[in-house]
Write a structure and sequence with these properties.
Layout (H helix, E strand, L loop, with lengths): L18 E7 L2 E2 L3 E3 L11 H5 L2 E3 L2 E5 L5 E4 L1 H14 L7 H14 L12 E10 L12 E10 L10 E6 L16 H16 L4 E5 L7 E4 L3 E6 L2 E5 L8 H12 L3 E5 L11 E6 L3 E10 L4 E4 L8 H14 L10 E4 L1
Parallel strand pairs: 9-10, 9-16, 13-14
Antiparallel strand pairs: 1-2, 1-3, 1-8, 4-7, 5-6, 5-7, 6-18, 7-8, 10-11, 12-13, 12-15, 15-16, 16-17
Helix pairs in contact: 5-6
The structure holds pyridoxal-5'-phosphate.
């Protein structure tokens, strides 16, 4: 086992031993290659660089108490990457190529899979982009699918810490009929300026509204939003929201613990009716929200009064993490054991 301070690792890049690459050329996917290089050689006219043909994924593998490595819901990531590919006219990565790549890269970097009990996990970053040259605006004929990994620490090192979020109206991350529903880099480019401003003004992240009416909640930066109202888990539905696999899992867990689940448009006016609120995604599972400040209207919605996490958010988090670590029965077969 490596001499790494697992519990102190940030959520960030970390050099490991290997990554894996597969190329789509002449209309078909080739054989996966294992590389120990951190760089790629890319054509200067690659469409990824000029026209944003690029999509990515993010998923985690966990070392359980039994020593086994569990991959969480990889098929959903593979499916979502295919939808992203369709959305911006890239070659779709078949499930078998996706699976072989993620399991190989985990096994090749096994010494970087954090031990059980450290709170750390192995983050996998699959990446698909147009590598072939074009100058006219059209899709590439060649694509590269690459997966690298990085051990990442627990998101909240001292346990849950509710965050403050800034609601903005002067930026949009996605257009109503644009690419908000797929995981493409372009959406992130559009979110960098407002996110940077929010950080400078003391917030952890931005809450975007629907671009058309500025009335409905869209996303909390790179995470989905949810609220708890009485006995109901409420989360926005919109075709500009990226369907979070964490959110999908939390909705199932919410049902299983006896909550009602409401997937619908959620108006900003409703914010003051929530008992708890959070942002969800693979990196943190849940980032509980302490308060949301509407930057333009200078209005504050407070959720956590004493800096504590709400009981339902805590229960949802504990259950999902318990399943990922193999401590709680995985009744929907969300985990795949890597062997
Ligand atoms: C990846 C992502 C999420 C979270 O999705 P998970 O599958 O739960 O990790 C949420 N919003 C955006 C914009 C994303 O790109």
């Amino acid at each position: 086992m490596e001499n790494i301070a697992w519990g102190e690792l940030p959520f960030g890049y970390f050099k490991t031993d290997y990554n894996v690459r597969t190329y789509f050329r002449n209309g078909k996917w080739g054989e996966m290659e294992i590389s120990s290089s951190e760089t790629i050689n890319i054509h200067m006219a690659a469409t990824a660089l000029h026209y944003g043909q690029e999509a990515f994924e993010g998923l985690k593998a966990f070392r359980g108490k039994d020593g086994k490595i569990r991959l969480f819901r990889w098929k959903e990531n593979a499916k979502r990457m295919r939808r992203s590919a369709q959305g911006i006219m890239m070659a779709e990565v078949p499930d078998d190529v996706f699976f072989k790549s993620i399991t190989t890269v985990i096994k090749m970097n096994e010494r970087f899979v954090p031990p059980y009990g450290t709170g750390a996990s192995l983050y996998l970053r699959p990446l698909l982009f147009g590598s072939g040259p074009q100058v006219g605006v059209k899709p590439a004929e060649e694509y590269m699918f690459l997966v690298f990994v990085a051990p990442v620490g627990p998101y909240f090192k001292e346990g849950f810490k509710p965050v403050d979020i800034q609601l903005v109206r002067d930026y949009d991350r996605a257009a109503p009929l644009g690419t908000g529903h797929i995981k493409v880099g372009g959406n992130y480019a559009a979110s960098l300026r407002p996110a940077d401003r929010a950080h400078k003004e003391g917030f952890a992240s931005v809450l975007f509204l629907d671009a058309k009416e500025k009335k409905y909640i869209d996303e909390a930066g790179p995470a989905n939003f949810f609220g708890i109202k009485g006995n109901t888990y409420v989360t926005p539905e919109s075709n500009t929201i990226l369907p979070s696999i964490t959110n999908m899992s939390l909705r199932q867990i919410a049902k299983d613990i006896g909550l009602d689940v409401d997937l619908r448009r959620v108006s900003v006016d409703e914010l003051n009716t929530f008992d708890e609120a959070g942002a969800c995604g693979t990196a943190a599972i849940i980032s509980p929200i302490r308060k949301i400040v509407d930057r333009e209207k200078n209005k504050t919605y407070q959720f956590s009064k004493d800096g504590q996490v709400g009981p339902i958010s805590q229960k949802l988090y504990d259950t999902l993490l318990g399943i990922q670590l193999g401590e709680i029965e995985d009744k929907y077969n969300w985990n795949t054991i890597v062997e």
